[in-house]
Amino acid sequence: MRQNLENKTALITGGSKGIGYGIAAALVAEGMHVAITSRSLAAAQEAANELNKIGKGKAIAIEADVRDYTSQEDAVNQVLDEWGSLDLLVANAGIGHFAPIEDLTLAQWHETIDTNLTGVFYSIKASIEALKASQGLFVSISSLAGTNFFAQGSAYNASKFGVTGFTQAAMLDLRKYGIRCTTIMPGSVATYFNNHTPNEKDAWKIQIEDLGQMVVDLMQMHPRTLPSKIEVRPSMPA
């Protein structure tokens, strides 16, 4: 039997656009209440306003930076103050800097690792007690770049290999509390990542609503079963 998601709650980092927004929209459509974070409160609020037009669950905007642990604690506390529980954490916020290793700057390296990897650690660390209480689900958004390396991808590969390994280890640590941990590893997705603007030529790519449906499916699955690592590819790449 699929689980009823109405009035369950979620926190999605980097939820103002792209994959995070697609996940939020799918959850709100199922009746979940969703908090989306962004470093820009205006961007998060604009997205929350659109999500609230869907008509089932409620969305709120939170200004937060995954590179700051206190900021993540504050975000979790805002969810608990608003709804009293946290059933799902989606660690989605991420960036990409791509350059040959001799050209990659120290600032680009640190921003990539601090956002994509340390940010995931901060997000789950701040949420553990709330997820213990709800026996909830933790989803990290990794990438196929978290298992396949490529030229000019040293920082991004390192961060996503790290997210994949971190989430699998966290799964082993946390399942004794009833917390399920899954990492989703998409290939090409039609998003705004790396200064791209989605357009009609992206029809062959994974769409954000596809990943949203995947998280809904994970939430509705019986808790006895855990897809711990999911690789996702376009069916027919260009």
From TrEMBL:
GO terms for biological process: monocarboxylic acid metabolic process. InterPro entries: KR_dom, NAD(P)-bd_dom_sf, Sc_DH/Rdtase_CS, SDR, SDR_fam. Residues 8-192 form the Ketoreductase domain. Pfam families: adh_short. Belongs to the short-chain dehydrogenases/reductases (SDR) family. PANTHER family: 3-OXOACYL-(ACYL-CARRIER-PROTEIN) REDUCTASE, 3-OXOACYL-[ACYL-CARRIER-PROTEIN] REDUCTASE FABG. This is NADP-dependent 3-hydroxy acid dehydrogenase YdfG. It comes from Cecembia rubra. The lineage of its organism: Bacteria, Pseudomonadati, Bacteroidota, Cytophagia, Cytophagales.
